Amino acid sequence: MSLMIEREFSDTSEDAAVKIRGRNTPEFRRDLAFPAFTEDMLDRLRVYGQEENFPPNVTLYLHGEREIDLFVVLEGGIETSLPATVGEPKVIREYGRLEFSGELNLLNSQGSLIDARTNGASRLIRIPRPGFRRLMRDEGDIANLITQALVWRRLGIIGETSGGILVSGYAGDAELMKIQRSLYGTVIPTRSQRSHRSNPKV
Fold it and tell me: Where are the alpha helices (DSSP H) in 82-139?
């Protein structure tokens, strides 16, 4: 039996997310993954959080951190990146006015897959988890926009061909399936590479 587990966090750019195509998933929709709130939505969002001013290069949350807050950009920006095992972290996205940070872990207790920091002096609306939960219950259109965006962002990370854990082994192998089951639902993006056993020569 041949089995390999390889952890990779290398090239993850905005363009790399498009590599999700042809992998039994929808074509990556950047417009759905990175929407902006309307001014009306912004007025309603203020009820659930508070405005804060941040100097440049302030860390908002780190990879693996749980229960992170939602940040909405009023001025300045937020830069998110994926940690790399070698070299500098790779920037995934720079968020501008009326855009918001975060990915699917905002909806559960998993750790963040990415780091986030301010990109220059910034004014943000910070919505802590209790306020975020109320927001998702009370504001249906905003909740739908956020949920859709977070799902597409996670698909983009998982679809990145050089990101996460590569699990490689023979199709149908019991040990391979056991490892896949144990990784399912973790914070780490996982890819599978299955090989077929060649028939022995007679």
Answer: 129-138
Map residue 128 onto helix, strand or coil.
coil
Contact 115, 38 (CB under 8 A): no
Helices 140-159 and 129-138 pack at an angle, to 10 degrees, of 120
Nearest to 60 by CA among 39, 44, 81: 81
Instruction: Report which DSSP code applies to 116.
Output: E
Residue 10 has pLDDT above 60, yes or no: no
Contact 134/48 with Cβ under 8 angstroms? yes
Strands 122-127 and 50-54, by their bridges, are antiparallel
From the list 149, 163, 184, the residue with the least C-alpha distance to 20 is 163
Residues 6+ apart with CB under 8 A from 191: 158, 161, 164, 165, 166, 167
Element (H, E) at 140: helix 140-159
Written as one string, the DSSP assignment of 157-176 is: HHH-TTEEEEEEEETT-HHH
pTM, to two decimals: 0.68
Residue 70: both structure tokens together: 């939602």
* Residue 86 burial (CB count, 10 A): 7
- Name the H helices within 21-122: 30-33, 39-45
Q: Which amino acid is at 91?
A: V
Write the pLDDT tens digit of every residue in 44-101. 999 999 999 999 999 999 999 999 999 999 999 999 988 876 667 888 889 999 999 9
